[in-house]
Design a protein that fits this description.
Strand order of the largest sheet: 2-11-10-9-8-3-4
Pathway: Amino-acid degradation; L-kynurenine degradation; kynurenate from L-kynurenine: step 1/2
CATH architecture of the largest domain: 3-Layer(aba) Sandwich
CATH topology of the largest domain: Aspartate Aminotransferase, domain 2
Keywords: Aminotransferase, Cytoplasm, Lyase, Pyridoxal phosphate, Transferase
Helix content: 40-55%
Distance between the termini: 67 Å
EC number: 2.6.1.64, 2.6.1.7, 4.4.1.13
Strand content: 5-15%
Cofactor: pyridoxal 5'-phosphate
Family: Belongs to the class-I pyridoxal-phosphate-dependent aminotransferase family.
């Protein structure tokens, strides 16, 4: 057979070699092709080409920094998760092949069992669970499946910054409603729970065109855990106006100080209109695995499956198998001291407290989060002492401050103004976000100071974390 194939290629080679000169002439013509006159990019990409993450990650990588900007752990996943992944790679060779399009069956089954108990629902793996390429993929699939041209999507500010472009790419119109911080007295600690929705303002954002509301609890970047009363307000308005709730709950296992995470889908009347989104990356400290999921009623999920099967179709099998085994292990230890969720929470709260004290020691005013990987801190004192940092005249102060800190203090953070709509950015340009789920937040690292050391270009002398 191989000789026959070789003969066929040999037979083809002759005519091709005979046309070598003509091919060269054709290549010359192709090089003279003029640029296309038509607009190449789809209109839905207009204004979305610039991403602040690219700019700040590039700047951090070009300088020797302690990276407290990006939201990923700098330590290994738990041993059982690592062993599960190794077993998936070295065990059953069929895990190198396709699995079910909407999720590896053992994973969809354990997700249905695990979260069905938490949400008070009898969940069917094939109807109520969809495995996606990370929670990011879950969000994109949800927006593409449910948001139509002209639909309005209510987004609570500050918001995880992909919500707005994903709404726009689906043809929707983002409608923003801010969390408003309560004024605090000098010397008083500020907490994410002090940032509240105005019930009247929220209610006024709902119109006949409202299709969805995006909820993020615990939230990024603020670390707010929405209370039951706040969730009941959102649920009431969603039901009154027949609106879908897209609930991003990737940090649900990181809720501090005895606060309780409540999934809005567990409230009366909300399962039927809620998509609950989760992340194995945040659950098992393995963000590079990119395994996420959506949970919801079949009447919504069937539309997400349509998008999924006509886009990515399938997620990597081995990572799904590792996540399935990790959840099966966690089911056996759930709520016990041996539970990874319990251990991760305790370790992360310790890091949060350490970073909070360190920020206070250098004159910053952190907003203490109730949950998540993140806290934001008020840099107003720096803004008054150092108002003329380098940067474009119209550039938000927090962006200039982060660039100054990266270049002069070896510390990377993210400006909070990028988590706001353009009209509101100028009102919140005196906050920056730090990620504290880092080993560095326990053992020392970057430094920042508003002292005279900045004028000499040397690193500051006060430890931040």
């Amino acid at each position: 057979m191989f000789r026959n194939v070789a003969a066929i290629f040999s037979h083809l080679a002759g005519p091709l070699q005979g046309k070598k000169a003509g091919a060269s002439s054709l290549a010359g013509c192709l090089h003279q092709t003029v640029a296309m006159a038509k607009q190449l990019q789809a209109r839905r990409l207009d204004g979305l080409d610039k991403n602040p993450w690219v700019e700040f990650i590039k700047l951090a990588s070009e300088n020797e920094t302690v990276n407290l900007g990006q939201g990923f752990p700098d330590f290994a996943p738990p041993d059982f998760a690592m062993e599960a992944f190794q077993h998936a790679v070295s065990g059953d060779f069929m895990l190198n092949q396709y699995t079910k399009a909407f999720g590896y069956p053992p994973l969809t089954k354990v997700l249905a069992d695990f979260f069905g108990k938490l949400l008070g629902q009898e969940m069917e793996p094939l109807k109520n669970v969809l495995v996606t390429v990370g929670a990011y993929g879950a969000l994109f699939t949800a927006f593409q499946a449910l948001v139509d041209e002209g639909d309005e999507v209510i987004i609570i500010e500050p918001y995880f910054d992909c919500y707005e472009p994903m709404t726009l790419m689906a043809g929707g119109r983002p409608v923003f409603v801010p969390l408003k911080p309560s004024p605090s007295q000098d010397g008083e600690l500020d907490y994410s729970s002090n940032w509240q929705l105005d019930p009247t303002e929220l209610a006024n954002k709902f119109t006949s065109r409202t299709k969805a509301l995006v909820l993020n609890t615990p939230s990024n970047p603020l670390g707010k855990v929405f209370s039951k009363a706040e969730l009941e307000l959102v649920a009431s308005l969603c039901q009154q106006h027949d609106v879908v709730c897209i609930s991003d709950e990737v940090y649900q296992w990181l809720v501090f100080d005895g606060n309780q995470h409540i999934s809005i889908a567990s409230l009366p009347g909300m399962w039927e209109r809620t998509l609950t989104i989760g992340s194995a990356g945040k659950t098992f400290s393995a963000t590079g695995w990119k395994v996420g999921w959506v949970l919801g009623p079949d009447q919504l999920m069937k539309h997400l499956r349509t998008v999924h099967q006509n886009s990515i179709f399938h997620c990597p099998t081995q990572a799904q198998a590792a996540v399935a085994w990790s959840f099966e292990r966690e089911q056996q230890h759930f709520g016990q001291p041996s539970s990874y969720f319990v251990q991760l929470l305790q370790a992360t709260q310790h890091k949060r407290d350490h970073v909070t004290r360190s920020l206070q020691s250098v004159g910053l005013r952190p907003v203490i989060p109730q949950g998540s990987y993140f806290l934001i801190t008020d840099i107003s004192d720096f803004k008054s002492k150092m108002p003329n940092l380098p940067g474009a005249e119209d550039e938000a102060y927090d962006r200039r401050f982060v660039k100054w800190m990266i270049k002069n203090k070896g510390l990377s953070a993210i400006p909070v103004s990028i988590f706001y709509s353009v009209p509101h950015q100028k009102h919140f340009d005196h906050y920056v976000r730090f990620c504290f789920i880092k080993v560095k937040c326990r053992a020392g690292g970057g430094k920042v100071s508003s002292s005279s050391s900045r004028s000499s270009g040397k690193k500051g002398s006060t430890e931040l974390c």
